[in-house]
Amino acid sequence: MGMDTVAIAVGTGGGASEDEMKAIEFQGVENQAAALAAVGNGSLTSLRVVLCSSMGTTNPKPPPFEGGAVLFWKLNAEAFLSSSGIPSTIVKPCGLKDAPQGTSELATGHDDTIPGLVASHAIARADVAAVMAEAVVQRSAVRFALCSKLLGKPTTDYAALLDQARWPWQRAAPALAA
């Protein structure tokens, strides 16, 4: 039995050249998806990719302090995965910070916005990793923005968070009471 899932969390550091950004953020994702397809069981729909991208990829000219040119290559990776035939989850976090997992309430949204969140708040890398791990387990296929709130009860139910991240028409129907 071959591998059926890959979680990708690549990122260029500050000062990367355009060629390095393309090679890491876009071509690296293409290569990992191709490798997954090559060792999979022959059915693309049985495979899964979970990608950590970035919020801000919908801005056609992001300023450097919002990610700059690297967001173009991250968006290309998202578009590639969306057209690859391999079901994928694309997690688009706000700015990242080093902090313990599970100390903030997490919020999701689409198109680089989070409803009800006045400003984007950096999210702990550990929280992003936990959400990505749950996406591997749940075999989710969704693309969403992810931030932390300044106030609120820390998120612990990552399966519910992934359901909340879906578009309304994709969400699980509530169970009927017996």
From TrEMBL:
* Gene Ontology terms, MF aspect: oxidoreductase activity
The NAD(P)-binding domain sits at 2-136
A family per Pfam = NAD_binding_10
By its UniProt entry, which InterPro entries does this protein fall under?
NAD(P)-bd_dom, NAD(P)-bd_dom_sf, SARED1-like
**What's in the GO CC field?**
chloroplast
**What top-level branch of life does the organism fall under?**
Eukaryota
Q: What is this protein called?
A: NAD(P)-binding domain-containing protein
Protein source organism: Haptolina ericina
